[in-house]
Amino acid sequence: MKRKMPVFASALALTMALTACSGTSGNAGTKETSSPAPGSSAPAATAAASAAKDTITALLPPVSPNYQKNFDQMAKDFNALYPNLTLKIEPAGWEDVKQKLDTQVNAGSPPDIAFGGSDSIPKYIQQGLLMDISDTVTPEMVSDYDKAPLEYMKNGKGLYGFPAYMEVHALGGNKPFLEKAGIDWKKVQQNGWTYEEFREAIKKGVVTENGKTRYGFVFAVKGVAAVDYLGIMAKNAGMPHAFNKDLKYAYTSKNYLGLLKDLRQLIDDGSMPKELSSVDAGKRWNMFLTGQTMITGKGIAVFENSGKNNNKKLEAKDASAVKDSIPVDYVVLPAPTFQGAKASSATVVDGYLTFRGKKEPTPEHKANVIKAAYFLASGKVAATTNNDLFAAHITQSAKKEAANMKIDRNPDNIAAVDNMLKNATPARSDIPTELAAKAIKLETEVIVPKFQGLLAGEVTPEAMYEAVKTAAIAAFGADGVVKD
C-alpha cells in the first residue's frame, strides 16, 4: 500500500489541476496550483501552464508618449511569462482616467490594477476597495526597489501597489531666453534660488516684441491643476505636507498666508499673465513652445524630450510641428524657496494601485494581481516607459534593462534632477487615513476654488487664508491645526 500512495497522490493532483483549469475569474479570482516567480524565465513559466487560468484587469492612461502603443506587446509578454494568466488592459485618457476609476470604485467593481497617484491611496483605503498586498508580496519584489519610492505606496503598515517612477515636479526654462535675461541657470540648477531672486529673474524675462508679450513665468492652473502650483510652492515654504510631524494641519501657518501673497504678487508684477487662471496644461506648453514665456511649470523631465521632438519637426518642416512654435532648449529649474525655508522638492510617485471588489479575492487571484502589477512596474516595461519619460529608474531590474537602451538627455538636466531628488519631500505613511481624507476633502471644497479666485483677482490672499483656517478648524478642531 505504501508503494502505491505516491501514484495515487500524483493522479489526484493531476485531476485537481485539470478541474481547476476549467474555471476563469475576474476580481473574484480562481484557484491556482502553481506560479512562477516574478521575472522568471521560460522553464518556470512553462510549469505554470497547468495552473488555473485567471484574468487580471488594468485601467491605464497614457503614462508616457508611447506607453499605450505598447499595450498589445505588454499583454503578450505577460502571457508568455505566465501562460495561465491574461492581462486585460483598458486604455483611458488623462482627462477621464480618474473619473472612470471613481465610477468603477463607487459601483464596487474596480479594475484589479489602476494607474494613479500615491497621494490618492488614503481616499481609496477609506472607500474599502484598495487591496493591501503587504502579506503576499515577495521579498524579491520588495528588494528590487529603491527604498524611498516604495514608501510612497504605503499607508500605515499596508502596501497598496508598486510605484512606476519617482519624478520631480520642477520648473523649466528656455535656455536662450534665460541667457538673454542674464540668468545664470547653471548656478540655479546647482544651488537653487529664493523667492526674491526668482521674482527679479522673471521680471527680466518679460519682453514685448511686435506687439506680443513674452512672460517671465507661466504655470498651468486651470481647474484642479491649481492645487499643483500651490502644493509645489508650499513644500518650499516650510510646509512639506498638509500635516506637520505632530499631525496638526499645516496650512493655517502664517507661512501659508505669506505664500499666497507672494504668488499673487507675481501676477501683479506683470511677470505672469493676468489671465493665468484660464491657462491649462496644454496651453501652458503651447505658450512655451511658441516663445510666449521664458519659464514654465509644472515641469517634468519628459518635457525636454517633447521639446526636442518638436525641434526636429521644425527642422524637417514637418506640418505636425506646433503652429508658430520656435526651437527651444529645455532647461530643468528648481522651484524657489519662500520665507527662508529649506528646499523641499515636490516629488510625484505614481504607480500601479491594487484593488479588490466587494468580495474578498482568493489568495491565488491576489497573488496574480501582484504579479501583474509588478510586471508593469519593473523590468523591461518600466525601463521602456521611464526612458520614454526621461524619468529615473527605481528598480534594479529596470536599470539592468535600460543599460542597453539609448537615450538623448541633457547631462545638466540629469544633474539638476539629481540635486532636487537629494531634497525630495519624504513620504509620510504615518498620517492616519481619516486625517488625509479630510485634508483631501478640504483641498477640493475650499482650497482649489479659493485659489482659483485668488489667481483671477476675485479673492484676496487674506480672505483665502481665513477661509482655509475656518474650514481647517471645523475639520480638525482648534487643537488640530498649526498656530504660529
TrEMBL record:
Pfam family membership, one: SBP_bac_1
Bias-annotated ranges (Low complexity): 33-46
PROSITE patterns assigned: PROKAR_LIPOPROTEIN
Record GO cellular component, one term: ATP-binding cassette (ABC) transporter complex, substrate-binding subunit-containing
InterPro entries with a match to the protein in the record: SBP
Keywords assigned: Signal, Transport
Signal peptide start-end: 1-22
Zinc recorded as keyword: no
Molecular-function GO terms, alphabetical: maltose binding
Highest taxon in the source lineage: Bacteria
Keyword Transport set for record: yes
Region (Disordered): 24-46
Protein name per Swiss-Prot or TrEMBL: Extracellular solute-binding protein
Family note: Belongs to the bacterial solute-binding protein 1 family.
The species this protein was found in: Paenibacillus sedimenti
GO annotation, biological process: maltodextrin transmembrane transport; maltose transport
Gene3D superfamilies to which the protein is assigned, alphabetical: Periplasmic binding protein-like II
